[in-house]
Amino acid sequence: MTTQPRKQPSLLMWALRLLFALSIPVLLILVNVRLVMTPVFLQFEYNRPDFPEDFYGFTREDRIQYAPFALNYLFNDADVTYLGDLEFPDGSALFNARELHHMRDVKIVTRYAFGFAVIWGLVAIGIGLVLRRANLLRQALMSGAILTIGLLLAIVVVAIVNWEFFFTGFHGVFFEQGTWYFQYSDTLIRLFPERFWFDASLLIGGLTIIESVGLLAVLFARR
């Protein structure tokens, strides 16, 4: 009795496998970004004993009171007047015109990013079903997990070694030049200093790496 030679995956299947593998880091990162964009992370950051103080007078309680407004704005259906109408106890505006312009831009980027995550997540599920029928899903998952670990390790190293380069590069990709520079006395900087973004970036990177390692462990255990 002769055995049939093992059928090699078609070019289309290789393309779908690559596309599926590439989707893993993108989707994991976006999911973890959403996990960080919660009041829980705000509470965690502001209650850290080494979190930098605001030299212009915000207490921890002030930050906990005001920061959720910026976060809520990104996910509600209100226009920027939701933030523009906020005032300090003395009647002055909580956010200036430049800050409001930036927050409007951030809301647009946020909606596009998470809208893309939902759509592409559904596409990835469909590709995964096709790959499963072709017995290529496990290979695609392993490739995606390994790619994610390598990519995120590189990003985390860059962020730690040269935070200014990483921070500037990120904003340069998503926002118009000059629209995201603020004074240290501006509310956005007082609520969200660079230490906040550094911690958030490391947490997102760390969670993504841990999830990818966990995925690899499950795949090897079910080998």
**Biggest beta sheet attributes:** none
Distance between the termini: 28 Å
Count of DSSP strands: 0
Integer count of domains: 1
Mean pLDDT score, rounded? 93
Overall, the morphology is: elongated
Helix share, percent = over 70%
SS content category: mainly alpha
Report the C-alpha radius of gyration, rounded. Answer: 22 Å
What does this protein structure show overall?
The longest helix is centred in the middle third of the chain and has 37 residues, at 97-133. Helix 1 (11-36) packs antiparallel against helix 5 (97-133) and helix 1 (11-36) crosses helix 9 (194-221). With 223 residues, the protein is an all-alpha fold. It is elongated, with a radius of gyration of 22 Å. The chain has helices at 11-36, 39-46, 60-75, 81-84, 97-133, 137-161, 163-174, 187-191, 194-221. Helices cover 72% and strands 0% of the residues.
SSE topology:
Blueprint: H1 11-36, H2 39-46, H3 60-75, H4 81-84, H5 97-133, H6 137-161, H7 163-174, H8 187-191, H9 194-221
Helix pairs in contact: 1-5, 1-6, 1-9, 2-3, 3-5, 6-7, 6-9
Question: What's this entry about, in short?
Answer:
72% of the residues lie in helices and 0% in strands. By secondary structure, it is an all-alpha fold. The model has no long low-confidence stretch (mean pLDDT 93).
